[in-house]
């Protein structure tokens, strides 16, 4: 019984690190971050997308928040542009390369 009472004391604020944002808010936040990364790279959507092996239209859908960014694409973003998954999905800047972090 004790563990049940302990769980009842956990508030949404205490659990904030594990509660996910609303899906639309999350998509828009990811879109804003990846759009800024592309801008910092100095590339247009066509060239940025080509480096990731995808069409500019597909990339545009992610960057404009029309579609969720799937993990395989985020991994390509990490490999090609050194953008950590933690930044892409959650906005955590601690592992960003210095050249990117200073321009955000």
Description:
- By secondary structure, this protein is an all-alpha fold.
- It has a single domain (21-101), classed as lambda repressor-like DNA-binding domains (434 Repressor (Amino-terminal Domain)).
- 60% of the residues lie in helices and 0% in strands.
- It is built from seven helices and no strands.
- Mean pLDDT is 84; it is low at 7-19.
Task: Put the structure in a nutshell.
By secondary structure, the protein is mostly helical. Helix content is 60%, strand content 0%.
Average pLDDT value?
Answer: 84
Strand tally, please? 0
- H/I helix tally: 7
CATH topology: 434 Repressor (Amino-terminal Domain)
**Architecture, according to CATH?**
Orthogonal Bundle
- In helices, the fraction of residues equals 55-70%
Can you write the helix and strand succession as a string? Answer: HHHHHHH
Low-confidence stretches: 7-19
* Overall SS class: mainly alpha
CATH homologous group name: lambda repressor-like DNA-binding domains
What is the CATH class designation?
Mainly Alpha
Could you describe the largest sheet, including whether it forms a barrel?
none
Which term fits the overall shape?
A: globular
Number of domains: 1
Strand content: under 5%
Q: Rg from C-alpha positions?
A: 17 Å
Give the N-to-C terminal Cα separation: 49 Å
